[in-house]
Structure formats: structure tokens, C-alpha cells
């Protein structure tokens, strides 16, 4: 979220700014504001977990330890509820799921701080994460089932006449999982931040006009306040939805139906 006095377009808050330009021919490896806030998120999470766990934690958890334990238990419940199979087998993937959920959660929440940057509001970030997860899940599927993994393309009991069409449709549907996973997170974060900016700018304009508008501007400011609270909920919900879909896709790869 950005101060409405500083920018004029709702989309300017998503601009990529290069801090350290690094160009190799036509390729750019510049250190940008997006890179900075991803690094900041990871550093904050590592520092938080280090401070909470360095002494083994407290018998009576404090505020920060309670937050970490809640995140841990939520990620663990997703693994236990959404992934079928032997406990030891599915718990192998818990560190990955826990890391992704924590990164997305704090990335979304940090993006709600004024003058910060929401890295998950960029499709290249969410799609890159979703695509790497999709490739990893596919590899897990082949490692678990070998070539039998292709059987997910053809449900049991399907007439052979329809088989070629269903194989194509199932393959397209499977490949679009990465695209839909990335778009869902990016679209929700970008739309919510844009709406907050638009209403904030409208309220600020009414406030600057003075007179009767001092009273009239309270309505849009109240809406902005409520919408900001809703966005905080969306930030948590989108991290949860992304992670639960990851668990569902992973379960499909491990346990063929």
C-alpha cells in the first residue's frame, strides 16, 4: 500500500524499480524493489523463527512464539488432512509446504504496510513459484509411480472412443494448474491493493476540497478502513488457498485415483 499523495495511478504502486542495475546483454539480473522485499521477507521470517526457537521455546509461549506455533500447526494440519498415505511418507513434504506457506503469508502481510511492496501482486513471481511447484510435483509423481503416472490422463471406465479426447483435455487441465495457481494469487492481491488505492485517493480528494467535504470524506475513509481489514484477511486466506491447492495437487501425484 502506498500513500495516495505520492502517486497518481493505482497501478504505480506495482512498478518495478531497479536498485542495482545488472545487465548481461539482453538479460537483466538487476536487484529491484521486488528482490529487496523478497529478501526482506525471508530475512524477517528466519530471524523470527531463530529468536523463537534458539532456546527451545518457552513452556508458556509468548506472543511471537504463539504466532509461530499457530503457523506450524496450520501447515501441519494441511499436510495431514489433504495428503493421504503413510504418515512418514507425506511428512517428507512438510518442510516444503511449511516454507511456501510462511513465505506467502509474510509476503502478503508485509505488502500491507505503507510504503512497502507486495511481491505477490506480480504475475511473474506467483507464476514462477507455481510453475516450479508444478514441475516438482510432476517429478514426484514419476518417481512414485513411474510411467504409470500417465494413467491420470485416462479415468477408469472411459470408452475407448472417447479416450483420445479425454487424454488431451486432462493433459491441458493438468498443465493449466500452474497457470491458475499463479493467476489466483496475483489477481487477488493486485485487485485488492488497487481498490484500496482508488478509494484512498477519492477520500483524500474530498478531504482536500474542504467545507462540506470534510464530513462527506468520512464515508470513503470508513470504507477504506474496512477494506484494509478485509485485505488483511485476504492476505492470510490467499496464502492458505495457495498452500491447500499445493497439498491437493501433491496428493493427486502421490495417490493416483
Structural account:
It is a multi-pass membrane protein. F-type ATPases have 2 components, CF(1) - the catalytic core - and CF(0) - the membrane proton channel. CF(1) has five subunits: alpha(3), beta(3), gamma(1), delta(1), epsilon(1). CF(0) has three main subunits: a, b and c. By secondary structure, the chain is mostly helical. The protein has one domain. 67% of the residues lie in helices and 4% in strands. The chain has 8 helices and 4 strands. It has helices at residues 33-53, 63-82, 87-90, 94-110, 123-145, 163-209, 213-216, 218-254, and strands spanning 18-20, 23-24, 27-28, 31-32. The strands form 2 sheets. Strands 1-4 form a two-stranded antiparallel ribbon. α4 packs antiparallel against α8. The longest helix is centred in the C-terminal third of the chain and has 47 residues, at 163-209. It is globular, with a radius of gyration of 22 Å. The protein starts with 17 loop residues before the first strand and ends with a helix.
Amino acid at each position: 500500500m502506498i500513500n495516495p499523495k505520492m502517486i497518481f495511478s493505482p497501478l504505480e504502486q506495482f512498478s518495478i524499480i531497479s536498485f542495482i542495475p545488472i545487465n548481461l546483454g539482453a538479460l537483466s539480473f538487476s536487484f529491484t524493489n521486488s528482490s529487496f522485499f523478497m529478501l526482506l521477507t525471508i530475512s524477517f521470517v528466519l530471524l523470527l523463527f531463530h529468536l523463537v526457537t534458539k532456546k527451545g521455546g518457552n513452556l508458556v509461549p509468548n506472543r511471537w512464539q504463539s504466532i509461530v506455533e499457530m503457523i506450524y500447526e496450520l501447515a501441519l494440519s494441511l499436510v495431514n488432512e489433504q495428503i493421504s498415505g503413510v504418515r512418514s511418507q507425506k511428512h517428507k513434504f512438510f518442510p516444503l509446504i511449511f516454507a511456501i506457506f510462511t513465505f506467502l503469508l509474510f509476503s502478503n502481510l508485509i505488502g500491507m504496510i505503507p510504503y512497502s511492496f507486495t511481491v505477490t501482486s506480480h504475475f511473474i513471481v506467483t507464476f514462477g513459484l507455481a510453475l516450479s511447484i508444478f514441475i516438482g510435483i510432476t517429478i514426484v509423481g514419476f518417481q512414485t509411480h513411474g510411467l504409470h503416472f500417465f494413467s491420470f490422463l485416462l479415468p477408469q471406465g472411459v470408452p475407448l472412443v472417447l479416450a483420445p479426447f479425454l487424454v488431451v483435455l486432462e493433459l491441458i487441465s493438468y498443465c493449466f494448474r500452474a497457470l491458475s495457481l499463479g493467476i489466483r494469487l496475483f489477481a487477488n492481491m493486485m485487485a485488492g491493493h488497487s481498490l484500496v488505492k482508488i478509494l484512498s485517493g477519492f477520500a483524500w480528494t474530498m478531504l482536500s476540497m474542504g467545507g462540506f467535504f470534510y464530513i462527506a470524506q468520512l464515508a470513503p475513509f470508513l470504507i477504506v478502513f474496512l477494506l484494509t481489514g478485509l485485505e488483511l484477511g485476504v492476505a492470510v486466506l490467499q496464502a492458505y488457498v495457495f498452500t491447500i491447492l499445493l497439498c491437493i495437487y501433491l496428493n493427486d501425484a502421490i495417490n493416483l485415483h
